[in-house]
Amino acid sequence: MTDTATYPDLSGASVFITGGGSGIGAALTEGFLRQGSKVAFIGRSDASAFASEMEQATGNKPLFIQGDITDIATLRAAMDRAAAAHGPITRLVNNAANDQRHATLDVDEDFYDWSQSINLKSYFFSCQHAIRGMKSVGYGHIVNFSSISYMMGNAGYAIYTAANGAITAMTRSLAREFGPDHIRVNALAPGWVLTQKQLDKWADPQSVAAHVERQCLKETLAPEDIVNPTLFLSSNASRMMTGQAMVVDGGVVVTG
Predict the structure, then answer these.
(1) Using one digit for the tens of pLDDT, what is the confidence trace for 6-29?
(2) Looking at residue 46, which CATH number applies to its domain?
(3) What is the total count of domains within the chain?
């Protein structure tokens, strides 16, 4: 873990992260634990060993809840369990996603529904459920992970990029709707972060080199590079930011 800023308001905060046991999510879990947050996360694969490792490394054990976020009843139950253990969720990080490549002409309805259930549907319903609890305590901060993929018009995963664009649009609408309740909703759009999954499946040397060439900063992104921006958006340091899409990509796309 690289050095991170300290945000006093995150100490003791009830945090819920989707997909918090691997890749970017695992780095986020560690980052919040080191802030002293009470962290719960959900994931399909068994992350009990990771949770124990985090307790050893940080002195702060996360609550791991195994489950499938595409099952909305399971997702809601996991969030309720987190709130029972740590108090109402005041920081929600929607990180879980699946960027499975697909050829548009080969897509059937089952694949489409599966992809959207992970990459968009779960985001909406986790926001909805968290917002109910946030309203009860009078505030909350949500970070929805999008991607620069839709901004670049990337080919090869049109359903995934459609979900990314929808996440940004949904974030803006939720920010407008629930701002009066002191609930902030922002999106974070990473570039190509070289998680182990990316390295195993798609990040061959030629593709990585070509992508880095498009960046202003000529270094690859690691999961740890996403931690500080997420902590910032989840803390009072960004208290007057809402409805925004923060890009962290080494300078591929330029916004503003």
Answers:
(1) 999 999 999 999 999 999 999 999
(2) 3.40.50.720
(3) 1
Q: Which domain holds residue 178?
A: 8-194+223-247
What is the pLDDT at residue 2?
56
The two three-digit tokens of residue 100, written as one number: 């499975």
Residue 135 is encoded by which pair of tokens? Answer: 């309203």
- Whether 106 is covered by a domain: the verdict is yes
Residue 254 three-state SS: coil
Which range (24-28, 72-76, 223-227, 251-255) has the least confidence? 251-255
User: Using H for helix, E for strand and C for coil, what is the string for 136-181?
Assistant: HHCCEEEEEECCCHHHHCCCCCHHHHHHHHHHHHHHHHHHHHHHHH
- Answer yes or no: 160 catalytic: yes
3-state SS of 17-49 is: EECCCCHHHHHHHHHHHHCCCEEEEEECCCCHH
Kindly state whether residue 213 falls inside one of the protein's structural domains.
no
- 109 within some domain: yes
Choice among 7, 150, 157, 160 that is catalytic? 160
Answer yes or no: pTM beyond 0.85: yes
